[in-house]
Each structure stands twice: as structure tokens, then as C-alpha cells.
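job 3f2a | input accepted
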Amino acid sequence: MFAALCGLGTWQVRRLHWKNDLLARIEASEKAPPAPLGDAAEPFAKVSATGRFDHAREALLGVEVRGTTLGAHLLTPLLRDGRPPLLVDRGWVPLERGRPLDRPEGEVSVTGFVREADRRDWASPTDDTAGRRFYVFDPAAIGAALHLPDAPAPFGLVALAPPGAGRSLPEAARHLPRPNNPHLGYAITWYGLAASLVGVLVAFTLRRTGDDSA
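job 3f2a | predicted structure (214 res):
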């Protein structure tokens, strides 16, 4: 049991170092100017991509409540000449829309951060492909359901709102995400339990020794 608790603590320390490095890279990426998007990109990298939005094939991704309003993220293919389509999360929209959506036409340049694909497992919700409602970000599956002419890039782009942007719909992200970092607390908990186990064992041994000497 002691070895298991120490092993769990050490695992969380490793996770802590990994998460600290990830957060440092996200902060550096947010401060840096966007780089042109290539065929491959690191998750959370700040990049820019040029193309034309295919608004006829837009879809909704996930579920998110803002205030008292239920909404989702508007996912729109960005068609690029000579390159695979790119699924762009343009931002949050309410499911019941009282305001029109901004749908730019013609060639656009989109700045955002790279989002890697989600991993499906037994607990993943089922997508409503007919209704274009997706709950798992799986570019290959979404591209097939939207009948894109070519397979999309294996990652997506989460659009960032330009500085000073208003509250038009969709509401694009204002900054890169910051994943939570609870690993230090977890490590302290596991190591603390290991130390407590040693304390209990020492107390038990001393008590047994005292009983035997009596």
C-alpha cells in the first residue's frame, strides 16, 4: 500500500511538470503573433489560416450554458485552395437566436488556436449527424457527415476574436484556454496518505512492543 501511494504521488508530480510546461507554452503562444498554419500544428499553437467559409455546411458542437442561455459552438468548414478543408470553431451561439449570425463571404483570414481531435470512448455521447449536432470533435467523422468534398485536416481551429471586437454572434474566444492544474494538490494528498500510513504503522508497532514488554 505504501508503494502504491508513493507511486501515485510520483505520477502526479510528473503530471504537474507536464501541465506547467503546457501552460507556459500556451502563455508564450498567446503573446506571440500568429504563424501561418501548415499541414501539421501543435495543439494550442496560435496560427492564421486563409480560405472561404462554407456556411451551407455549418454545424453545432457541444453544449454550453452562458448565463441562463443554452447554446453551442458554431463549427464551419474553411475551404482552402489546394489544401484540406479546416473545421473552424467560430464561437458560441444561442440555440434560440434572437440576433442574426455574422457570416462573412469571400476570402477571409482567421486567427485562432489549434484544437486537437477528441478521443472517442464508451462514455462519448452519440452525435446527431442528421441534425448536424456533434458532441465529440472528430474531424474525420464530422467531415463525412457534412459531405465535405475532401477529408478535413485532422485538427481544428478555434477562432479568436480580434482586439476590441464587440458582442456579435458567434461570440469567438477572447484568449487561449488555460487547463486546470490540480496536480500539486493531488501529489500532496497521495504523499500525505503514504506518510499517514507510516505513522499508523509506527504507532501500532510501538503499542505492540509495549504490550509485549508488559
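job 3f2a | The beta strands are 35-36, 46-53, 59-66, 69-80, 83-94, 107-116, 133-134, 155-159.
job 3f2a | closed
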